[in-house]
């Protein structure tokens, strides 16, 4: 058995694991010899990844079709996982968009759903699966965040806030769980060629990370640090931004959103 399997096996659970960055995590875990539980809402993507992981890597794959924002999510996951021993938890799912805080087509219910997926989801799965890891004194947890979680970002306001939660939770648990030999890592993703990349077609994506590159960085960082700002270009930009006064930085983040995703015009608040 490899060192990776001994530390993080025998099962990995990847929330949002059938597409994009999540799929890259699922494939990485399977490639290391772990069996994989894949949570996703897309039944077609789940069927595909189950077939690919079992055939390509000769591991077990348990696909679980689920709404990560539902009130019954944790109970349904516990029922599906049953007695399987989860040694690696990756929460990759996130409900994201860009636009004004008050939007014309969504309201408070949508923002509460965002909390359910981006905040409650990682909390309840971490709370459930971390306890046995601590008892065994081995395991790993990765909470996927975003560069938007590193600073309050205009036009990503509530998404930015939820992703800041994921960073703070993972960083704190990195310290709390370290004496139990359980590794925790927050990953602040930059611009990545994931399933969301269809919205980047008007941008120069030459500097974007692939999901595989991001996952490789995360797996090299887990156990070594509490936070990974993923991607060399993203890290360099983050280091520069730390030297900029808050007022100027927030203005820059607003301009970036406006120029790249809102046709260069500040959107009106739908009030």
UniProtKB/TrEMBL annotation:
Q: Which InterPro entries does the UniProt entry name for this protein?
A: NAD(P)-bd_dom_sf (IPR036291), SDR_fam (IPR002347), VLCFA-Steroid_DH (IPR051019)
The cross-references to SUPFAM superfamilies, in alphabetical order and at most eight, read:
NAD(P)-binding Rossmann-fold domains
Organism from which the protein derives? Candidatus Litorirhabdus singularis
What keywords are annotated for this sequence in UniProt? Oxidoreductase
Q: What is this protein called?
A: SDR family NAD(P)-dependent oxidoreductase
Q: Does the keyword Oxidoreductase apply?
A: yes
Oxidoreductase as UniProt keyword: yes
Top-rank taxon of the source lineage equals: Bacteria
Signal peptide start-end: none
């Amino acid at each position: 058995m490899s060192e990776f399997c001994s530390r993080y096996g025998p099962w990995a659970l990847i929330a949002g694991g059938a597409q994009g960055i999540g799929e890259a995590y699922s494939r990485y875990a399977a490639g290391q010899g772990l069996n994989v539980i894949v949570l996703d809402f897309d039944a077609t993507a789940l069927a595909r990844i189950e077939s690919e992981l079992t055939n390509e890597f000769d591991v077990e794959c348990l696909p679980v079709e689920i709404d990560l924002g539902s009130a019954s999510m944790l109970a349904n996951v516990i029922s599906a996982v049953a007695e399987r021993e989860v040694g690696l938890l990756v929460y990759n799912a996130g409900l994201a968009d860009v636009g004004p805080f008050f939007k014309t087509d969504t309201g408070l219910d949508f923002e509460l759903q965002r909390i359910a997926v981006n905040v409650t989801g990682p909390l309840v799965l971490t709370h459930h699966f971390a306890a046995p890891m601590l008892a065994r004194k081995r395991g790993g947890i990765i909470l996927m965040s975003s560069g938007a979680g590193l600073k309050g970002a205009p036009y990503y306001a509530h998404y930015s806030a939820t992703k800041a939660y994921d960073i703070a939770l993972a960083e704190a648990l990195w310290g709390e769980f370290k004496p139990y030999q359980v590794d925790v890592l927050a990953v602040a993703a930059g611009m990545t060629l994931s399933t969301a990349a269809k919205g980047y077609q008007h941008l120069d994506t030459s500097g974007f990370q692939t999901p595989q590159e991001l996952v490789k960085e995360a797996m090299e960082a887990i156990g070594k640090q509490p936070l990974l700002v993923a991607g060399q270009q993203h890290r360099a930009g983050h280091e520069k931004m730390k030297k900029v006064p808050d007022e100027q930085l927030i203005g820059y983040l607003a301009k970036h959103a406006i120029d790249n995703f809102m046709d260069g015009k500040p959107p009106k608040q739908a009030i």
